[in-house]
C-alpha cells in the first residue's frame, strides 16, 4: 500500500482575490493529490478558526502562518502514514497536533482550520487514488453510504431548486434557462460575492416576484428575506410565514441570528413540515451544535460547509447525525471559492440531495456543476437525481 511521502502547502488566491491555502500530498507510488480550501465572507462566530496573518500584507488576510503550520508541523508528522486512513489521520491532526477545544468541541486555534482542512481534503483525494476509485465513491465508503445521489442544484442568490428535473443535466438546463435579463436589462446578470445573479432590486419581495416570473417564462412551474428595518423575532417569523403562504418556497436559510435558538424552534414547529429551515451560522457544520439543534428541534436541515468545521471526518459526522434526525442536507460553497471541485464529489458521496454553489456563471462556481455533470455521465444508468426527494434522498446511514 502506498504511503504519504511528502505534504507541501502554499498560498494561492480565492475568487475574491484573498489568500487561501492549497496543499499537495505526494505518495510513495508517485500519486499527487491537491486540494484548496475556500473562505467565507459572512462567517458564523462559532466556526472553527481560520488562521490569518494579520498585519499589513494582503490587508491582514495572508495565510503564511497556516502554510507554515502544514509544512513544519502537520506534514512531517504524516510521513509514512496510510492515506486511506481518513478518520485516523483527521483525528490525529485535530486532537493531537492541534488539540485546542472550546465549549463546542475541537476549534483548531493552534494550527488553523484552513491548514488542517487543506490537508484533510487532499488526503481524501489521495485515499481515493490509492484505492483506484472515484472520489465520490471513496467519500460514500467513508460515510457508510450505499447509494450515490446527484443533488438538486440551488441557484443563488434567491435560490431556484429545479426539483422537477429528471436528471442533474436537465436541472442545469432549467436553471440556466430561468434567466432574468429581459425585465432588468443587462445588469440583471450582474453577480454577487458568491457568484449568484444580483439584479438591481430594492427588496426581497421584488426578488421573489422576479423569480416566479422568470420560472414561468422559462416554461417551468415552480419554490425563499426584508430590507434593513429592525423587527422582532416573532414579527420576522410571521413575515417568513407570509412569504411561504404567497410564494412556492421550499427552503429558508438562516432566518434568525445564530444565537436565536428560540425563534428558530418556533418557526420550525409552525412551518417545518412545509419548508426546510436550514441552519448555517446556527450550526456551522459542528456536530455538537447539530446535536443541540436536533435535541431542541431548532431547525430541520444542515448547510454543509467543510471549512466551518475543518475536517472531512467531522463533516461526515455532522451529515450522518442530520440524516438520522430526518433532516435535509445542503452541501455549500463559500463566497471565496477556488477551482477545487471537492464539494461536488462530497455531495454525491454523502447523498446530500442538495448543493448550493452559485449561479451558472464564473468558473469557480461552474467547476462544481461541471464536475457533477461528469459524475452523472460516469454513473450512467446507475445515476440517481434527488429531484423531489431532495430533503431525504436516501435512508440514514
Automatic annotation (TrEMBL):
Positions with a binding annotation for Mg(2+): 253, 280
Upper lineage: Eukaryota, Viridiplantae, Streptophyta, Embryophyta, Tracheophyta
Domain called Enolase C-terminal TIM barrel: residue spans: 147-393
Name of the top EC class for this enzyme: lyase
InterPro entries, per database record: Enolase, Enolase-like_C_sf, Enolase-like_N, Enolase_C, Enolase_CS, Enolase_N
Pfam families referenced in this protein's UniProt entry, alphabetically: Enolase_C, Enolase_N
EC number of this enzyme: 4.2.1.11
Protein name: phosphopyruvate hydratase
One GO term describing the cellular component: phosphopyruvate hydratase complex
Amino acid at each position: 500500500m502506498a504511503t504519504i511521502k511528502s505534504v507541501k502547502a502554499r498560498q494561492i488566491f480565492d475568487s475574491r482575490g484573498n489568500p487561501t491555502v492549497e496543499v499537495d500530498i505526494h505518495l510513495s507510488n508517485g500519486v499527487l493529490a491537491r486540494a484548496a480550501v475556500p473562505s467565507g465572507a459572512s462567517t458564523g462566530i462559532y466556526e472553527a478558526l481560520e488562521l490569518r496573518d494579520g498585519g499589513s500584507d494582503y490587508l491582514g488576510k495572508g495565510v503564511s502562518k497556516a502554510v507554515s503550520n502544514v509544512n513544519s508541523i502537520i506534514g512531517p508528522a504524516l510521513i509514512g502514514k496510510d492515506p486511506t486512513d481518513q478518520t485516523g489521520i483527521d483525528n490525529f491532526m485535530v486532537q493531537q497536533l492541534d488539540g485546542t477545544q472550546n465549549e463546542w468541541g475541537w476549534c483548531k486555534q493552534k494550527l488553523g482550520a484552513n491548514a488542517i482542512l487543506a490537508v484533510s481534503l487532499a488526503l481524501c483525494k489521495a485515499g481515493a487514488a490509492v484505492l483506484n476509485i472515484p472520489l465520490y465513491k471513496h467519500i460514500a465508503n467513508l460515510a457508510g453510504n450505499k447509494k450515490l445521489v446527484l443533488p438538486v442544484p440551488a441557484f443563488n442568490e434567491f435560490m431556484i431548486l429545479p426539483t422537477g428535473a429528471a436528471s442533474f443535466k436537465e436541472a442545469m438546463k432549467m436553471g440556466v434557462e430561468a434567466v432574468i435579463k429581459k425585465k432588468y436589462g443587462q445588469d440583471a446578470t450582474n453577480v454577487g460575492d458568491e457568484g449568484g445573479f444580483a439584479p438591481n432590486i430594492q427588496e426581497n419581495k421584488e426578488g421573489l416576484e422576479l423569480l416566479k416570473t422568470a420560472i414561468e417564462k422559462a416554461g417551468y412551474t415552480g419554490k425563499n428575506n426584508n430590507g434593513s428595518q429592525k423587527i422582532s423575532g416573532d414579527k420576522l417569523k410571521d413575515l417568513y410565514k407570509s412569504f411561504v403562504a404567497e410564494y412556492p418556497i421550499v427552503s429558508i436559510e438562516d432566518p434568525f441570528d445564530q444565537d436565536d435558538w428560540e425563534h428558530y424552534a418556533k418557526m420550525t414547529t409552525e412551518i417545518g413540515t412545509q419548508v426546510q429551515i436550514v441552519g448555517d451560522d446556527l450550526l456551522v457544520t459542528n456536530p455538537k451544535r447539530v446535536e443541540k439543534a436536533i435535541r431542541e428541534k431548532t431547525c430541520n436541515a444542515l448547510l454543509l460547509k467543510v471549512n466551518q468545521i475543518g475536517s472531512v471526518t467531522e463533516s461526515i459526522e455532522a451529515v450522518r447525525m442530520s440524516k438520522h434526525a430526518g433532516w435535509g442536507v445542503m452541501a455549500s460553497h463559500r463566497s471565496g471559492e477556488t477551482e477545487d471541485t471537492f464539494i461536488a464529489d462530497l455531495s454525491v458521496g454523502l447523498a446530500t440531495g442538495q448543493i448550493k454553489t452559485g449561479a451558472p456563471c464564473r468558473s469557480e462556481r461552474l467547476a462544481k456543476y461541471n464536475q457533477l455533470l461528469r459524475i452523472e455521465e460516469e454513473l450512467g444508468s446507475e445515476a440517481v437525481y434527488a429531484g423531489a426527494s431532495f430533503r431525504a434522498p436516501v435512508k440514514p446511514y
